[in-house]
Write a structure and sequence with these properties.
By secondary structure, the protein is of the alpha/beta class. The protein has 10 helices and 9 strands. The structure holds 3-phosphoglyceric acid. 3-phosphoglyceric acid is lined by residues 19, 46, 71-72, 134, 160-163, 181-183.
Length: 211
């Protein structure tokens, strides 16, 4: 058994795991505070921008109300850098043995990604009970999640990719869905214009979703 799930798991804190692409490090703290004031206490900062690691560091040190994780970890080096930046949990869009191994070695809660039954079976073999299902909408959406649930019901999913406030409730209704991930809470325009109250309002709507 490679992976021991330890409670409380960060992604279980909210029905929605906000996925944040931060292009200006000055946005990191106000963004995390806006989510927190809307009632969401977790954020996944994706390593897709030059300032993402610095953004994780800032959120970790300046917004203690938020549990900050790192996402889009596609190499073991990404994992090491995320850990060094202070990430409190790790998310990957897929799960190579190398990335999975690095995530396990870190000892942090890890949410590896999968898109197929075989990939989920491999995660189950390695002791995982939770996985990110990516890309959710383009892989087949709700009907795909149901088909997965009929064969691997014991692995709980965080579908991500193409989810928004409108379709999130249908996903959250599925018994094999524990939460959903998405970037819709953080519109690019709102961040660029510093309209943090808009992010708080979207966070409040997301936090109120039932699961
Ligand atoms: C991710 O990294 O999880 C996805 O890019 C988020 O997908 P979305 O932007 O469609 O929510």
């Amino acid at each position: 058994m490679e992976h021991n799930v330890v409670a409380p798991l960060p992604w279980m804190k909210s029905p929605v795991l906000p996925v944040a692409t931060i292009s200006d490090v000055a946005h990191a703290v106000p963004l995390a505070r806006a989510l927190s004031s809307g009632g969401i206490s977790v954020i996944e900062v994706v390593l897709r921008t030059p300032c993402s690691l610095q953004a994780i560091e800032r959120i970790r040190s300046e917004v203690p109300d938020i549990t900050v994780g790192a996402g889009t970890l596609v190499t073991p080096r990404d994992v090491d850098e995320a850990v060094a930046a202070g990430a409190q949990f790790l998310v990957s869009p897929g799960a190579t043995p190398e990335v999975r191994g690095s995530m396990t070695e870190s000892g942090l809660p890890a949410l590896p990604g999968a898109a197929t039954v075989t990939e989920l079976m491999s995660l189950i073999d390695h002791g995982y009970e939770h996985a990110k299902l990516f890309p959710a909408e383009s892989s087949g959406g709700i009907s795909y999640i149901r088909a997965l649930g009929s064969v691997v019901p014991h692995i709980k999913l965080c579908p991500t990719g193409g989810i928004d406030q409108a379709n999130a409730p249908s996903y959250l209704n599925e018994p094999n869905v524990m939460c959903v991930g998405g970037s819709w809470l953080i519109p690019d325009r709102a961040a660029l214009d510093g309209r943090w109250e808009q992010v708080s309002a979207l966070a409040a709507q997301a936090a109120a979703l039932a699961r």
